[in-house]
User: What shape does this take?
Amino acid sequence: MSEPLTNLTIDRAVARLTLNRPDARNALSIALLESLLARVDEIETAATPPTVLVLTGAGPAFCAGMDLRAVLGDPAAGSTLLGLLADLTLRMRGLPAALVAAVNGAAIGGGCGLACVCDFVLTHDDAKLGFPEVDLGVCPAVVAPWVVRRLGAGRARQVLLGGGVMTGREAAQIGLATMSVPTFADLEPTVAELAARLSKAGPLALRETKRLLNALDGSDDADIVRRGAGISASVLATPDAQSRLRERFAPRA
Amino acid sequence: MVRLDIPGAVASITLDRPDRRNALTPEMLDAIPALVDRAARDARAIVLRGEGRVFCAGFDLSLCRDDPAGETMRSLLRGLSTAVRSLRGCRVPVVAAAHGAAIAGGCALLGGADFVITNDHARLGYPVLLLGVSPAVSAPFLRATVGDAACRERLLDSALISGREAERIGLAHHSTTDPEAVLPTAMELAESLTLKSAAALAATKAWLNEIDGTGGSYWPGMALGASLGLAGGEEERSMLPAAWTGGGKS
Assistant: This one.
């Protein structure tokens, strides 16, 4: 029996959800996104719903982004993939829990988008975060609403149009990360400390506070995220994007 | 007095009136949209820059001197709004090289840029309430860039801020120590943008414009209306002469 694509542990108030596809740097495939959505169902229906959700990745990467290799040349699959990411981000944002991204390594494109959905983003100085979509000919529209909410529209423009990646330290400087600890080894204790502190919140007070914050910043607007997914899917289907991706995925000599 | 150069993949739109610190006339502002259209058609990124020692000192308010009805001020405001919207709305990314000073209408032009490079000792701001002029026309763009709190502070407080402070609040994306480094830094960034997918950049820019409300005509139109409403009014007529009797700050 093969390893599950995600792992979920719930220890009293703290849930820990791990992307478990380390051989693919936890790239978001249709199956992985479906597994994550099923985990969100589990969290929602837990006998005692957790008040803290830590999201992290197995292996050296947090999440390398959308698994575009798997949907190359298949626009319908690309559209499904992006629609699932839109649904996952909306479902995660709506959880009555404080979301903590423990960015253990690379958080790229859609992977960095997942981090932006979280209330807290902890990383370390050597991690690489960013949105290189425009370098690859694809469009980060599906995650743009979350990036704009997290960074403000001005910085979001800089990051999404500028492409490339930044270090964890730079991510903390612009507010993409809540904080960046010096090394990977420092990350887990810092995450544990934050999760322990957050888990002391009254569940009802936390639920109401998140509900208000989500209403205030427009996070309840599912339509804009779904339209973003549609834009990302239509750009992904263009010949320009397909040829850039083919070149990218070509075996290197 | 506004020049377009397209030597390669990066187009430069240059405010070219250095003897007047590139002070903006209605003709200069009205020229910008057509230059932006051509640049967006023939190049893959635009650098907006100023010739001489500063980027732009704002409107040329000396033109408003013999115009008690405020027609010139209205032309300037309309021209500014249209120029900013054309930069914001074009399909290629826009990098502003704002060295030295970007004041009032000059700072407002930065609202059309996706990236702003300045230098640590540059002076930026909107000191126009002192002249009975409302900077409302800039509000939708500035608010999208720096957020609500800093937008209120910068539009309501006539003090200028340094380039370094502009970087801190997000009005500028990068501030260099050497003013001479502003243009090369902006060009380098623009060159790097030309290597990316033009289609993906255009789609992303259009989507960001839609998300932050700067791409539509509703808020920019409302904001222009608020500024226009004061042009030629009693307060402006009494306060505007400070622009040409006191230090000429515009």
